[in-house]
Amino acid sequence: MRPKTTKRTILDMRSRGERIVALTAYDYLTARIVDEAGVDLILVGDSLGMVMLGFENTLPVTMEEMIHHTKAVARARPRALLVADMPFMSYQASVEDAVRNAGRLVKEGGAESVKLEGGERYVPVIEAIVHSSIPVVGHLGLTPQSLHQFGGYRVQGRDAKSAELLLSDAAALERAGCFAIVLEGIPWPLAGRVTESLTIPTIGIGAGAGTDGQVLVLHDLLGLFDAFTPRFVRRYAELAGEIRDAVA
Ligand code: KIV
To answer: Which residues have any ligand 1 atom within 6 Å of their CB?
Structure first.
C-alpha cells in the first residue's frame, strides 16, 4: 500500500520537481476510486455546490454541507491528502469564525487540511488557523467566491498592476504559513512567475503547465457535468452520455 500523503509529502514533491495531481471528490465511492487511481490530493471543493447540489455558483454552500461531504470522503480513508474548502462566509467575517470553522472541518469532517480563497487580507486568518495546527492551502486568481466582486468569471492578473498584486499576495500567503497555493484562471506566464517566486508548490487550474501540479473538478474531467465545460478542461470520458444511454 502506498504511504499516506501528508502536507510534508506535497512539499517534498515540489523539492524533487515531481508533479502534484489533485482532483475533487465529494462522496465515499468516488473518493475511493479517485484514491485507488493514485491522486496525491483529494479536494472536497465548494464546487460541490454546483455539481452535487445544483446551485448556480459556490456562494450558497454552508459549513454543514461541507462537513457532510467531507465526512463521506474521509470514510474512504484515502491515502491522498484530504483537503476541504472553507465555504463563503465561513472565514471572511472574523479570525475567530475562521479558526472555529476550520476546526469543524477537521474535527467533524475528518479533513487533514483546509483551503481558503484570498490574498494578503487573509494573512491573520491563515496564521491563526496554522497556529491551531491545521495546514492551509491558499487560493488566488479567479477565486469563485469573489464572483460578484469580479463581475463574472474573468481571468485575473492580466495587467501589470494586478499581476504584481498577485505575486505579492502569493508571497504573503507563503509567509503566513500556507503549504501550497491553488492558482486559478490566470495567464500562463504569470502562473510560471508565481511558481518560480515561491518555495511552496503551486497547483493550477486554468493557469497553464508552469505550475507544480494541476487540480480539476472530477465531474468536468469525466464529462459528467456537461451543462458547460471551462475552456481549459480536458475531458477524459463522456460519462453523462454513457449514463443516459445505459439508463435508456
Ligand atoms: O471548489 C473547487 O473545486 C476548487 C477547485 C476548482 C480548485 O476550488
So the answer is: 24, 43, 45-47, 85, 182, 184, 205, 215, 217
- Each residue's pLDDT, cut to its tens digit, for the chain (248 residues) gives 899 999 999 999 999 999 999 999 999 999 999 999 999 999 999 999 999 999 999 999 999 999 999 999 999 999 999 999 999 999 999 999 999 999 999 999 999 999 999 999 999 999 999 999 999 999 999 999 999 999 999 999 999 999 999 999 999 999 999 999 999 999 999 999 999 999 999 999 999 999 999 999 999 999 998 777 788 888 999 999 999 999 99
The protein residue whose alpha carbon is closest to atom 4 in ligand 1 is 45
**Grid coordinates given for 21:** 495531481
Whole-number Å distance, alpha carbon 128 to ligand 1 midpoint, is: 23
pTM of the model: 0.97
Given 3-state DSSP classes, what are the helix, strand and coil percentages for the chain, each rounded to the nearest 5? 45, 15, 40
Gap between the terminal Cα atoms of the chain: 39
Torsion sign across C-alpha atoms 87, 26, 2, 14: negative
Please list, in sequence order, all residues whose beta carbon lies within 8 angstroms of the beta carbon of residue 154, skipping any fewer than 6 positions away.
142, 185
- For residue 160, the CA-to-ligand 1 centroid distance in Å is 26
Cα(119) to ligand 1 centroid in Å equals: 16
**Which entry of 56, 127, 184, 196 is annotated as an active-site residue?**
184
Tell me if residue 238 is catalytic: no
